[in-house]
Amino acid sequence: xxxxxxxxxxxxxxxxxxxxxxxxxxxxxxxxxxxxxxxxxxxxxxxxxx
Length: 50
What we know:
By secondary structure, this protein is mainly alpha-helical. The protein has one helix and no strands.
């Protein structure tokens, strides 16, 4: 029974650490002011070998 409690605590700690890491990644992500538009595609020359 002690092993199960230890495994449960370890799993809980890992889940909390993963959640904290996810929040840190979301907060530190640079905010892009330019939106990606799929209405206008960049001019890309055709590949004749394709």
